[in-house]
Amino acid sequence: DVKVTQSSRYLVKRTGEKVFLECVQDMDHENMFWYRQDPGLGLRLIYFSYDVKMKEKGDIPEGYSVSREKKERFSLILESASTNQTSMYLCASSLSAPSGRNEQYFGPGTRLTVT
Amino acid sequence: AQTVTQSQPEMSVQEAETVTLSCTYDTSESNYYLFWYKQPPSRQMILVIRQEAYKQQNATENRFSVNFQKAAKSFSLKISDSQLGDTAMYFCAFMKHGTGNQFYFGTGTSLTVIP
Questions:
Q1: How far apart are CA A104 and CA B82, in angstroms?
Q2: I need a labelling partner for A47 at 20 to 30 A (CA). Which of A6, A14, A20, A56 fits?
């Protein structure tokens, strides 16, 4: 089974702190994604990566950056956390095959609270 | 850009009954994939069912089936013999064929199965 793990289930940080969210997948997937999930807004894509050291902006990249130094690891960085970044953050990964078997596999999520 | 609309924020169903969750999407692509994901309370998001747009036959997975109407750009999920474990948020997602595998998610439907 594909396993996607995230470094923390719950995280509380102060305004202005630098925050690192880590995601690791164990199935050699090319693609990795970071979403934030807010009630009534569904999942919104922050950044994704289709290869090591490659990154693409999603729909809401402002205030975030990412790093992918190894294929299995994709980090989301909040350079200076703000209260409006309080949210659930979901990581996902998928194969890069152009077929219907390339569904995304999700991690358990990190609920981040910025105070 | 692709958009996915789930017009039912909340639904409920009696145990053992059947319920249908609606999803519509907007795209100019001819080749794409559609997915339903389930997110139980405080648990990981998992894939329920997928549909390839070029396949006319509706996908089924045990008690879960879809009604895919390509011309109408509609992709509803039917859950038969509802069980308490079906209580969850359900997200409809669209992915166009090709590299990157970027998903577009709806805002979700919260389903409660009533004993």
A1: 25
A2: A14
